[in-house]
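User: Run a structure prediction on this.
Assistant: Running it now.
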Amino acid sequence: MNLKFNAADNAGWSLVGGKPTYTIAGPIAPGNSVNIPIVLMADAPILGNTQVINKAEISDAKDDDGVSQIDDDSTPDTIDDDLVLQDNEISGDGKAGEDEDDHDPATITIKIFDLALYKKLAPFEDMIVEPGDVVTFNIFVVNQGMINADNIEVTDYIPVGMQLMDPSWVQVGQLATKTLTAGVELPANGLAPGQTTMVPIMLKVPNPLAEGTRLDNWAEISGSTDEAGYPMVDYDSDMDQTNDDTFLIDDYIGGDAKHKGDDEDDHDRAYVMYRVFDLALRKTVVNDCPVMPGDTIEYRITIFNQGTEMVTDIVIVDTVAGGVIFDKNIQLYGWEKDGSNFRVTYTIDELIASGDSLSVSCSISLNQAVMN
């Protein structure tokens, strides 16, 4: 049951055998009609975009003398098994296998409830920390849906060793929670569609702390209601307190984990580091276009310093397979051959600061024997 009936909202209606029933006093003259409204409430929580079908049927009728009659082309009853071929069709002959015209559905579509979250270091913070530092993380909650959100519970997964320094959060074990409510952390009517709110959390870095430590601090939306206080279910994420969500892209709030297996966008991280050595490499083609045998192809190799320490004397090794050789002038650009045409090395002797990158070029030539 996705819809609820409340007799107080429906004058003249009553529950008979668990089904809302209304008796029209009548009489209804031939050719005339009567409209009877019924008010039903969507039984929260329901996943957004769900279609809910509500059906009605004539279950009995009498003539103006009070004598029960047999319908010419339908079978009045309280059994929901009538053939529906066309919505709002009232000319069908159900007894002849057509649409049974004493029975009809109406369909509604549930509005989407969709919250997303991303987490960043506060603007005044640095991801490079020292033991004992107090770090402020900013958690952003975005309403991407169609329904105002209230009582938004945010859960922070405190890294082992870090200490909660914010009394506005409630900690149980390694979980810290905070509920954002209308008129306090949220606007008076809750977080409206398209709006974003931010809540900070302060954590203390362990002291002592081993060199090479990286502290990942995750947060997640773990529950919410609409502005009337009814519990909601998120359209593309699971609101819970289990730190096991699919994470693919940092700060990404366009994922649909439920339907597409994407990044779960109600869950995100930010991190701090203490004397971490971390390098990454990316290789790209400078001119990405079709080539012919004998052409020279230029690549750009970029080294990223993702750690906290200055780095230098970085040795890059580049290897090619059969069919291509390194450009004959490659040694003029700082590369060194190892005695063959298939492997070269390059040493970066410049300093690369934390968060910076440096690029070098490398060219190869297609062997004339290689065909397109």
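The domain at 115-274 is CATH 2.60.40.740 (Immunoglobulin-like).
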